[in-house]
Amino acid sequence: MNTDSGHIVEPGGSMHPAGTLPAGDSNGMDDKQRRRRYRMYRWRDYGVGYLFMLPWIIGFAVLVAFPVGWSLFNSFNKVRITPEGFKFDWVGLDNYKRAFVEDNVYSIQLITYFQEMLLMIPLILIFSFFVSLLLNQKFPGRTVVRAVFFLPVIFATGQVLTELFVQGAGKLPFIEQYNLEGLVRENVGPRIAEPVLAVLSKAVIILWYSGVQILIFIAGFQTIPKTIYEAVRIDGATPWESFWKITLPAMVPFIGLNAVFTIVDLFTFPFNPVMDHVRANMFKPATGYGYASALAWIYFAIIIALLAVVLWITYRAAKGRRAMQ
Amino acid sequence: MKSGGFTAKATAAISRFKRDSEQALGSRRAQQVKKMLLGQHTNDGWLAKIIILLLLAVIGFLYLQPVFYMVSTMLKTVSDLIDPVVQWIPRTVNWQNLSDAWRGLRYPEAFTNTLTIALVCSAAQVCSCAVTGYALARLKFPGRNLAFFLIIVTFLIPPQITMIPLYAIYGKLGWLNTPFVFFIPAIFAQGLRGALFIIIFRQFFLTQPKALEEAAKIDGASSFRLFFRIMLPLARSACLVVFLFSFIWYWNMYYEPSMFLGKDFLPLSLRLNLLQEELMGNTQINFNAGFGKDPISEGPKMAAAFLIIMPPLIVYMITQRWFTEGIERTGLVE
Fold it and tell me: Is the minimum CB–CB distance between A278 and chain B shorter than 8 Å?
């Protein structure tokens, strides 16, 4: 039956005009044949669907599924490149063990980066939420200001950001003015101060990663019906109360969505050390593809954990809201 | 006596009334002013507007400060850069940096390369993602939900995972250092953020009325004609949004090119890395090289960064509203 899907592409073989199907001319046909015809029709229909999906299916198989599988396989092997091609020696979890035990750079980089990420994600979310809240108000020149806050998405090339950071342009000016660095260093331990300072030193560049999030939040605000605000206002709620009781709860799904988007966006963050480390190890003869793949999978595992936590929190918050109503 | 008392009472009443009415008028005036300033619900008055604008102006300035820094540094001479007195506005506007950067980036060549990648890939991505999104929204076939789930998963897989196998595959096919490493995934709906674009198209097609398709089907249009003649033209706005976002992201992409592109085909972002080497031959003196902040290379580097962000900036200026309204327009958020 599945092969039937091939027929529909034939030139001239016009698609089933929706009218010719089973019911009408069924009088002379016995039930079995009718059912078969119907099934054929169904599969033709499905065939069109699969045909539309074909580019994606091929792309997914060759460019996603196969590389992911191979990468996972690599991570359990020692991969050597010989003139005849790849040679795989099964080493089990050895690559992963080495990443934690032997590699004295990776685990530290990873921990520091995730500490930074745990700071960066709330920073981006709060900033974009706040700005979109302001942009959602009515005032003259709103479209222009909106355009300004989206601007960084336009020029967020990794190299350009790195250059700006190297030149020290990514800092917030008042950090030096009020000697915030010293303040942070004095008040918290060095363990925490390190990532905090790292984030502060590129604060503006991090905030540049909130362009799309701002748009999503603004679009989210539009989904809350105006009538609700009117109703609570008549009941005597102040704007402050209606923000906490209506706006924020309604925005929970969007906050979750933006958190996920931010995490994905930070994969290719120019200061993400995982990339360089993976690449460096990939071409090192001592480590090679296998070890580099293991490093990437460790990173992926932590990302998945992070995503799971975000989704769980969003789900819980949304559910709590539903229960309240 | 009687009448006198009456008049006195009356005048008292009148004056009281006058006072009351004056007070009422006054307080009405005051209320009007108050309403204008604070608004009916405190967030729609002038005061709120002014505060919002002020806040946004300050945040906006901080936000865009690196860009101002870029432009200001670009126009400074080396002596201006070293001089601590000169902060934002250079003493003389110096165009030397720009021409250095132009040369150092090999701008015309690198620009063409970047533009080719961005244009071809975004066009391919619009087509492939529209087709996939349409199938997911409107066509019925077993495994549709699985496909949608897999698309979301693709979005969440870090490029670090697939990078190594892809490098090997492209190497085998001899595509490394050619733009094909970007064209081919885009054609097969696996380009940069392809999953996101598929979801955008899916959401868009879901919002379209079904009656249209039914009518066309009854008139005997095939699914393909229906899609290309009716649905795709309807999706013009979604196509434009996807094209623009895709263009910008391909233009700004730097991780993938740094992996797959080498000597022969360099986009702008990689040229920026080579800028110092490229210009080193030209600048005789190069003190404290290797340090981050080096006044000699700083000017050309910022100029180069400016040259790189300029083309997308122009695109953005023309198509600004498609970006900022695009996400609402396509109904992605619902």
Answer: yes
